[in-house]
Write a structure and sequence with these properties.
By secondary structure, this protein is α/β, with parallel strands linked by helices. It has 15 helices and 25 strands. The protein starts with a helix and ends with a helix.
Amino acid sequence: MTVDIAGFRTSLRSGNLAEELLRPGRDVVLRSGDGKLTRDELRSNAGQVAGGLHELSVKAGDRVAVYAANSLDWVTAYLGIQRVGAVAVMMNPDYRAAEAEYIIRDAEPVTVIADRPRAEIIEKLGLRIVALEDLPLGATPPMPALTPESPAAILYTSGTTGRPKGAVLDHGNFLAQGRGALDVWRWTSKDVLVHALPLFHLHGLGMGLHGTLLSGGSATLVPFTPAAAVAELTRDDAERGTMFFGVPSMYQRLCDWLEQHPTDLSRVRVFVCGSAPLPPALFERCARLLGQPPVERYGITEGGIVVTNPYDGPRQPGRVGYAFPGVEVRLGDLDEVLLKGGQVFQGYWRNPEATAEAFTSDGFFRTGDVGEIAEDGTLAIRGRLKELIITGGFNVYPREVELVLETHPAVQEVAVAGLPSDKWGEEVTAFVVPSGSPPLVESELIEFAHERLAAYKCPKRVVTMEALPRNAMGKVQRSLLVK
């Protein structure tokens, strides 16, 4: 059977995001604390917010920033922006003044929707503010004429190697991402997602929120703590969670809690993990304590979740699986992971040079990640091209070394980076959070590596740390290790 992948990409991209997400219905679709919204209520509220924005002269194509913590009001504001046809500028609620100012100056939104803790920062920038707690309401305007190519949101890259760039995601991108998730993770109207991820981020937005609304299921928003997540996953009513999405640091905390509070989670249908590599040891620990290993997946800001381990198995530790429906994956020079598909964005906001550099001549997006594709077709991520260590003329990918060191019992977490060296050019260095038992001995860990890796790949130094520096989604910020 021949699959028309180009046609499949097109079918996944079809539609208007607001129309697809705001379907009518009497069932509860979102919960947070004591608050609940049915589909009809969410549809009506988003329409009224769209009306309020319309009365503020916000029109299709204008940019509106959202700078607030997760809440039902955040969801209503975001969907109101989509309903009026504007472009949502996603802002991390943890941004400090300088970070927020950079995003605002770059995106130039016509207004900013902010909650009270962040309003003062925006006021100092002299911009118009719409209070999240008092969203403007108006008569629901006519649905704007939007296409899959209409811009829906600007999400900024993490900026670990420089200033963040604004990735422009269109309606078709988001619809392809969400529909792909429904297919590969068997997501249905019977599912309840325990949603503890930040909504400003692609994982929490494009998968968590959009997937929930497209599936016909529901979601419960919770600030992440292991106790809160487990409580929602073990309820004895129809609101019991059947799905949980998280990042490795969340699964680490969840497993630590379950060691002290053994709990039967066998009724949870699927756990999904991504945004950073899941160490094989943690994979096995999850399998034991959760009753199943998480489905590890791979994604990027510029294209959403594009590769996943299969729901039906096998789920392989250290590998992120197969391409999503409608996505093509191949390896380019230096084994860089290249992507093409309806999920992948068209370019960066007001940055044609970066956009041109980001794509190959035949239209594949250059992820900057180094990969390896096995005989069974599964992908593994071995590191970032910009994190490549060149030591004594040899190339070392940090993830390959980390996978070895993570198996040592004295290591809880490890990140490998290159430090400047007069002798080697760069010196392979391991930054380790000790497990506490057995004691971490530098010489023993280095010898452990030598027994399993070529000499040039082995760390020359071991630096102990209380915690590794991470961004909001749990990715290690290597640039902070080498300063």
